[in-house]
Amino acid sequence: MDIHGITVGSCIEDNQQVTPERVASHLGSGSLQVYATPAMAAFVEQTCRKLVEPHLVEGTTTVGIAITVRHIAPTPLGRKVSIQAEIVLIEKNVISFKTELWDEMEKIGEAAHERAVIEIDRFTERVHRKSLKSTIEKTG
User: Fold this and answer.
1) Do the Cβ atoms of 81 and 30 come closer than 8 Å?
2) What is the distance between the alpha carbons of residues 38 and 45, in angstroms, rounded to a whole number?
3) Residue 131 located in a structural domain
4) Residue 111 lies in a domain
5) Which of 44, 47, 106, 135 could form a disulfide with 111 if both were Cys (CB 3.0 to 4.6 A apart)?
6) Whose CA is closest to 84, among 7, 5, 9?
7) Has residue 3 been placed in a domain?
8) Range of the structural domain that residue 61 is part of
9) Which pTM value belongs to this model?
10) pLDDT, tens digit, for every residue of 82-130?
11) Rounded CA gap, 19 and 92, in Å?
12) DSSP state of 38
């Protein structure tokens, strides 16, 4: 699998607002209007994907295969969350990232994330076969 241009130590920074769609009470992960852990996990995945996908060869993409999130401080609705993601390891087709997240006052979380570089055609064929199998089982 060709992942040239993706190097250990490469970093990216990004930010997002804590919108009503990103709070725990909306996502069902809690009852309060604070930045939700599932929103944090999605932000980690999106940011890591943005770091590597411009370097991939045509016909490939990445998929998330592991994530460990520590959400250590609350962030209220309307505030800004910033992230820094860094590539820390590349083994075959798996890229490992370390991330840290802050709001305007303090560090609010950190995550370890892994993404696999995959061939889109092979992956979609596998999904298609699985879809057909479940359709046959339901009708058979």
Assistant:
1) no
2) 11
3) yes
4) yes
5) 44
6) 9
7) no
8) 11-139
9) 0.90
10) 999 999 999 999 999 999 999 999 999 999 999 999 999 999 999 999 8
11) 37
12) H
